[in-house]
Amino acid sequence: MKKWLALSLIPLVSLTGFLACDDSTQVSAPPDGGSPDSGSPDAGNAFRSLANPPAPVPTAVGRGGAAATVDVRATLAAIEILKLGGNAIDASVAAAAVLGVTDPFSCGIGGGGFMVIYLAKENRFVTVDHREKAPKAQTASLFYAEGKRIDTNEIIASGLSVGVPGTVRGWDEALRRYGKKSLGEVLQPGIFVAENGFVVDTTFVDQTKRNQARFQRVSSARKLYLTDAGEPRAVGDLFKNPDLGATYRKIAEGGTRVFYEGEVGQKIVDAVRQPPEANPPLRPGVMTMEDLANYDARVRLPVESTYRGHTVVGMPAPSSGGMTLAETLNILTPYTETGDRELHLHRYIEASRLAYADRNAFHGDPEYTDVPLQGLLSPAFAQTRRALITDTAATGSAKAGDPYAHQSDPSPGRPPVQPPALDTSPGGATRETTHLTVTDSEGNIVSYTFTIEFEGGSSIVVPGLGFILNNELTDFDIPTDPNAKAANILEPGKRPRSSMTPTLIFKDGKPRVALGSPGGSTIITTVGQTVINYLDFNMPIAEALASPRVSERNIVVTPGTDTKSTAEPAFINSDIGTKLKARGHQFVEMAEIGAATGIQFNEDGTLTAVAEPVRRGGGSAMVVTP
Ligand code: GLU
N vs C: which end of the chain shows fewer Cβ within 10 Å? Predict the structure, then answer.
């Protein structure tokens, strides 16, 4: 009963693609689960430019629309779709499909993600949650054998960690509701790049190298991503993925049904239940065709908060990104001495520590977990957290606060026992996931983060289909005690908590910045620090995004020691880093944190698209009219 009540109160616009679709006039294909209009089947003509993309640049200024991604071909695909009359939603899906080819270890149709969208004509925000789900037959107990948690690496590379993929449903949902083009049309650039190939760069090779042993183990991954000699491809090699091209073609022609109810789906289920030959073998999962057929994207209202007179629009649960960012900024709001950057960053680090303590305790899939959203977002709750911040760094782990005391909506009843904050494990790498940002000439904006979770996902390439399945179910808390209860414990059908933080910042009803980043649980801090750089330190977005990063997540970074922040060397070695150490902050070096992209909307009507100049090999920003 309580769960049902909570369900009715969460900001859920619609439970399925066609229930309560308030945008039905924009639906361009029949409600049969397919997008049979494949548009121009001749990917070659319109997208020939993708064969010879220009050298990537991290900043571009101009008009008429803009895009920023980690990859020049993906950015170019977005720009080409805009030039062909597509809007930002169309262009973002086109770019994402190209990234599925060129950035396959971070994202793709084997995974899921979150899109935050601004619809200019209607002046409203929506989000499309296409996060992976646990299969119906999967319980938390499957992560344990003989009462003990299965070795983490064995969970990471297994059928057990594969969530029901949401990406294709999410793309289709976003296009049908808000796009101008069909899924079939916007898949064409991805088909072109998959079939004609692309020249692999250092980033691709490094990603393959880091996964070499994992791919070596699994026959289908070895076949696709390693040479016959079992080596990564060399920088400069042309890499083609005709299997993925054919899979995209099938989806373009047959619609989402091919993926969720047809031959693609069957091969996914087979690969999960009976993983490809591997040495040693991979543990199987329990996904069924019913799980795929029942997968729905969710269109949710975003989290909106206010900071320095700006509206910050972010992703709600099951991502913890929007809420944790909003709580961090709420804690910082009364501090006005932002001219003292070191002091403000000290407070930011402390605020982040406290917000993560709350994140870890309270956030989960809102359809399963009664997240006390209102309390967590209330200024009065932020005040209780701010009261804990002193002029020196806190020591030890921060404990969660009491949002229930500030929750006037009674539906998320206070649990009898405060759930433990389980996510205090060592911080992971930050090389997974990807973020892209797009706007069009009408002013629509898409801030889109999507992922297959770990770099290289589950390492299961679906045989013959050319893409890697996610291991998103590792985003659930998997405590050593199999009976532990927590907000983010796996339950059948549940979505794992995410950190993805696609964000839009508006002032006086006008867009100022759109941004987001990959990087596991450092995503929220990457976005948070960039927002502070931009709004508090008045940095232009390119500088805000390129600045050295620090990430405080209230976690034990080095097992057996105290909680510490992670930071990039340039941050640790800066004057500010030195002063922060004098306040008691401890930093563990992380070579790179995040790989953000963003767009700044300038006063004169121009757009500044921005990608990383250095991190992850540098990204690509472009505008329609420079
Ligand atoms: N699975 C992560 C999340 O949803 C994103 C992947 C990553 O960057 O680690 O938060």
Answer: N
